[in-house]
């Protein structure tokens, strides 16, 4: 019981300690605000600009969630397709690796040419950057189905679809939910990158405006807001993973 309580308190202890050390270094070191503002200065900026931060953070959260939702649907479908057939895997995988190697910030100007500035480029950038990990993990999960188990099921008369539905997909769920925790953080990166280039709203645009006005504490406040949203979304999918694929982690409990 005591060990479990310590494990629950560990994230809070590390976070509070980090902010305390940060504050002490800034105060004792005399570091100017325009270089590295202390946490108390950043929290003061958050209170001062709380309306803009709330409005822009909700905008970023909406763009990220839309792009991530599209990535989950298409990533899951394509991952199942690739895992179903080795021919499809060999045909699509090199193309996807090549596409994923392109920096997404280089794609944003093209999206702006097609759709103009605003929400659509942010949603599509979030989708593009979070799509690949989901596909790879779902396909990997299906590929790790034990051949001996497949042989046994075939000998009992199971079709390829039966094996996929009853063994392959359930076995790939830990990989799928693990990829969601990575993909949601990447989706935030994509949305913010797009907002800094082609948007009049969102935390990315707010931070760019604050940087132009030399409001360094507000820039750091934007970073903290993004970190908070990322942690919340990560925790949500970690809880879903624990509830739906808990059987895969019984040895760690």
| Low-pLDDT runs | none
Number of helices: 10
Q: Main β-sheet, in a few words?
A: none
Distance between the termini: 12 Å
Mean pLDDT: 86
Structural class: mainly alpha
- Helical fraction: over 70%
Order of helices and strands: HHHHHHHHHH
Give the DSSP E fraction (strand runs of 2 or more residues): under 5%
Instruction: Compute the CA-based radius of gyration.
Output: 22 Å
Number of strands: 0
- Write down the overall geometry: globular
Note down, in words, how this protein is organized.
The chain is mainly α. 83% of the residues lie in helices and 0% in strands. The chain is built from 10 helices and no strands. The chain has helices at 2-29, 39-48, 50-84, 86-101, 108-115, 119-143, 147-155, 160-198, 202-212, 216-244. Helix 3 (50-84) packs across helix 9. It is globular. It starts with a helix and ends in a 9-residue tail after the last helix.
């Amino acid at each position: 019981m005591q060990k479990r309580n310590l494990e629950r308190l560990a994230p809070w202890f590390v976070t509070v300690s980090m902010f305390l050390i940060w504050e002490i270094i800034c105060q004792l070191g005399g570091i100017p605000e325009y270089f590295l503002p202390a946490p108390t200065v950043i929290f003061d900026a958050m209170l001062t600009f709380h309306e803009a931060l709330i409005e822009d953070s909700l905008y970023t959260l909406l763009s990220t969630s839309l792009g991530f939702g599209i990535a989950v649907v298409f990533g899951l479908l394509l991952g199942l397709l690739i895992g179903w057939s080795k021919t499809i895997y060999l045909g699509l995988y090199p193309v996807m690796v090549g596409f994923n190697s392109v920096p997404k910030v280089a794609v944003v100007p093209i999206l702006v040419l097609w759709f103009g500035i605003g929400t659509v480029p942010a949603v599509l950038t979030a989708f593009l950057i979070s799509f690949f990990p989901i596909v790879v993990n779902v396909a990997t999960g299906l590929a790790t189905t034990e051949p001996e188990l497949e042989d046994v099921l075939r000998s009992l008369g199971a079709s390829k679809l039966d094996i996929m539905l009853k063994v392959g997909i359930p076995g790939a769920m830990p990989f799928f939910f693990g990829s969601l925790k990575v993909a949601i953080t990447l989706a935030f990166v994509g949305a913010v990158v797009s907002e800094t280039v082609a948007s009049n709203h969102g935390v990315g645009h707010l931070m760019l405006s604050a940087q132009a006005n030399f409001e360094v504490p507000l820039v750091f406040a934007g970073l903290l807001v993004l970190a908070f949203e990322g942690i919340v979304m990560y925790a949500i999918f970690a809880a879903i993973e624990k509830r739906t694929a808990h059987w895969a982690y019984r040895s760690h409990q």
